[in-house]
Amino acid sequence: MSDPTTRSIAFRGGGFNPASRNWISVLAFALLIGFWQLSSSLGWVSNLFLPSPVRITASLKELIVSGELWGHVVASVGRIGGGWLIGSVAGILVGGMIGLFTSWRSFGVPLIAALFPIPKIALLPLFILWLGIGELSKVVTIALGVFYPVAIGTYAGVDNVARNLIRMGQSFNMPYHAIVWKIVVPGTLPSILASLRISTSIAMILMVSAEMIGAEQGLGTLLLQAGNLMQTDKLMAAIVVVAILGLTVSAILTAIEKALLTWR
Question: Which of 42, 137, 168, 261 has its CA 20 to 30 A from that of 251?
Fold first, then answer.
């Protein structure tokens, strides 16, 4: 028989564990698009300066049916995929070495601090002179833009690994490589994945900018052509495609985070 003087206490340990409510995102987008369409239908906004969602959808459908869109998308995905992969791998390797070794830190941190603020798109004309106007100069520009945030995020993640865990591993006589693989790498993963998420946005910005400067195909080229001809519905359709590409990459990274960070 339970004691009538006892009472249950509510669980207070569920903080800092935000849940994802997809219906809020859907509702927010629906309200925004609905207000946008209403503003256009009532004449509050000119279709020349900001086409309605209906006109943008029609233009996007036309680009898809004609086949024009696919060539631009394939070219852009190839450039951003190659540049992002090269920059990410190089950033993780260099950032890891900076975080683990004093000699690398002494050389790498000042160099990254000096070169990171330089706008990478400003180096594209130089890369074109060195590497030609083909794909390589654009991929290198994207890779360079991705490299710095990933390298910074990686060595910052190494620095933030709890030192008591490392000391515990040392006290159990764990070899150096085992401490790195079993303690440092898992502890650094959240920072690496966060920097990869940031670097994808940088890669997309550089991709569009590079394609505007010197490319025959790509979403940046499509944006530039539509803007020059004042085809704002086509321009907005290209922006929608860039946004969809960004959402797709974000969803992939979210799935990777869930798979790799189950221990959290």
Answer: 137
Q: Annotate 223-251 with DSSP letters as a single string.
A: HHHHHHTT-HHHHHHHHHHHHHHHHHHHH
| Tens of pLDDT, residues 165-185 | 888 888 888 898 898 898 899
Query: What residues have CB less than 8 Å from 48, skipping those under 6 apart?
Result: 230, 232
| Domain ranges within the chain, ordered by starting residue | 51-260
- Going from the C-alpha of 194 to that of each of 69, 180, 199, 262, the distances in angstroms are 31, 20, 9, 15
- CATH number of the domain located at residue range(s) 51-260 in this protein: 1.10.3720.10
The string of pLDDT tens digits covering residues 7-48 is 676 666 666 666 667 778 788 888 988 888 888 888 887 777
The SS3 assignment for 10 reads coil
Query: Distance between CA 237 and CA 227 in Å, rounded?
Result: 12
